[in-house]
Amino acid sequence: MAQKITENSKRRSKKTASVEPINVIETRKDGSANGAQVSGLEEEIRRRAYELYLERGGTPGYESEDWIAAEREVRSRQLQQAG
User: What does each of the 83 residues of the chain score in pLDDT, given as a tens digit?
Assistant: First the structure.
């Protein structure tokens, strides 16, 4: 006996929308924008977040916390160097 395939028996999967990161360009006090400086800043934050991840033993699930802590450290270091 042939099995009847119905619409309900088919597996349905939800498509998740892919979210692309927003390109941010910081504007300096003199009004000029420096995209290279921003990408360098982002790269430095990314590296520090990865270091924090490794320091935690590579446990997944704390990406946001690592990024925020890395961003805080990097920006603080930049402010100290500038001032």
Answer: 555 555 555 555 555 545 555 555 555 554 445 667 678 999 999 999 999 999 999 999 999 999 999 999 999 998 998 87
* 20 belongs to a structural domain: no
Separation between Cα atoms, residue 54 and residue 52, nearest integer Å: 5
59: CB partners within 8 A, 6+ apart: 53
The answer to whether the CB of 63 falls within 8 A of the CB of 48 is: no
Number of domains in the chain: 1
Dig out the tokens for 16 from the structure.
Answer: 């998740």
Q: Which residue has 């929308």 as its token pair? A: 17
